[in-house]
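This part of the workshop introduces the protein records we will be handling. As an example, a complete record with its sequence and its structure tokens follows.
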Amino acid sequence: MKAILHLTKGCNLRCPYCYAGKQGSEQEMTLETAKKAVDLAISEGNGSACISYFGGEPLLKFDLIKEVTVYAEEKARTANCSMHFRMSTNGTLFTEEILKFCADHNILFAMSLDGYKKSHDISRHLPDGSGSFDLIDSRLDMILRYNPFTVVTHVITPENVSMVSDSIRWMYNRGLRFIAHQVDFNDERWDMDLFEVLKSEYEKLAQWYLEASRTGVHFFMTLFDEKLKNHIDHPVYVGDVCDFGKTKISVAPDGSIVPCVRFISDDPDAKGYVIGNVATGFTDKREFWIGQNLLGRPECNGCDLVGRCANYCGCTNWNATGSINTVPPLLCEHERLVIAIADRIGETLWNEKNQYFLKKHYKLDRHLLEMLTDRD
């Protein structure tokens, strides 16, 4: 089982698209609660467990991370359970000490970066309104020295949509090779004009993807590579990735358990998705919500792209429409666009018998692939 620990709701940034709720909150997880979450993950893990540090900004609680990591390693060793660690961070607080600890304990991390300075600083800013880009860029060489496989999470919004392709090129040239994309489908400013801009940016990215693939330099970008993988490997259906609390849970600072990080928020409706507490275990609501998530997506009936579409993410659906089973129209249009472009890329590289492309989609490291395709 994977347990995502929300160590704190506090954060040193104030990003408008953050779904974690009001920042600056004093809600923090205690060591006792974190240990109980670790115990639960191991007991439910069937020989394998993962602890992921989340926030707010988890590195505000680095001392707690150290204690929990050591505890989890010892507990897993005693239980003969394999243990993996993850972390989602904004990257602004990294020090050599923190990076060394992550390397020593195999903590893989995803770092938020919305592209080059102009694009990134639009949304990812400090409480005083100043941008956070320089705080990350000044640390990037050190970060990559300790973790060449650093995953960056790139959020696409109506405000930075015209900078998407240039941002990806910048990140690639800066040495970042693993890029996970998220479109902020919850932003009501999206319209057809902006969607056309997005389409144009994706077409530019497709051309760049072909050029980069021909160099043989290893990279992975979820935007296209996820679609290529579920065509080459196997389709992804509701429950395959977003299983809504079956094998992956999020733990709030007070120990409450919900199916996904998006339900740890200030939205009153999120309280209805609490499925237990680390102190007392799961309630009947766990099985109820797992079942509800598997009911499917009525809008998708008969669609020939259903096995390659992100409609499976009940949390994204809920965040945008208020229902885990209702897919936002923008997501549908977006997936149709991306799948068509990805298929064109795949056909081109297949016809070229591009060796890098063929190797990439059959031999990518499993744990790194999980890190990239995770929605946290």
Q: What stands out?
A: The chain has a mean pLDDT of 93. Residues 96 and 142 are 7 Å apart (CA to CA). The chain has two domains: 1-111+239-295, 113-238+297-371.
